[in-house]
Amino acid sequence: MDNCIFCKIIRGEIPSVKVYEDDDVLAFLDISQVTPGHTLLVPKKHVPDIYAYDSELATRVFSHVPEIARALKAAFPDAQGLNICNNNGELAYQSVFHSHIHFVPRYSTDDGFKMHWANNADQYDNASLTAIAAKIKAALAEEDA
């Protein structure tokens, strides 16, 4: 896409600090560096989000996740953990609409990165969870059809 900032980075029209590249993907440092080592992995093919992936593209992109994670662990041994995030849609905090995976090394609880998972277990019983699972299973069956 002509206007996509990540496509421009892939084409070399905008500079980036690359950490890995092959025919399918580019990994580069996020300019915001939420924490030191914050890296983005993007497919070279423009897809807006995870919903646009086919299984081949998913295999080519996501197969690089473990190797980049291990490289970050080796490069930053003082990191105590690693968040790997893929945001899809504006409500889910996606700000660039070219699919990308964030790798955020974690150094402490006050390193600038926050995630909060609500615990709503008291709002669901087995029947409601079974109903939710049935909806997902039906959608998966349609996907496979």
From TrEMBL:
**GO molecular function term, any single one:** methyltransferase activity
Top-rank taxon of the source lineage equals: Bacteria
Q: What is its EC number?
A: 2.1.1.-
The keyword Transferase is assigned to this record: yes
Where would I look for the motif Histidine triad motif in this sequence?
Answer: 98-102
- What does the entry give for GO biological process? methylation
Which InterPro entries would you find in this protein's record?
HINT, Histidine_triad_CS, Histidine_triad_HIT, HIT-like, HIT-like_sf
Q: Per its UniProt record, what Pfam families does this chain match?
A: HIT (PF01230)
Keywords of this entry: Methyltransferase, Transferase
Would the keyword Isomerase turn up in this protein's UniProt record?
no
UniProt protein name: HIT family protein
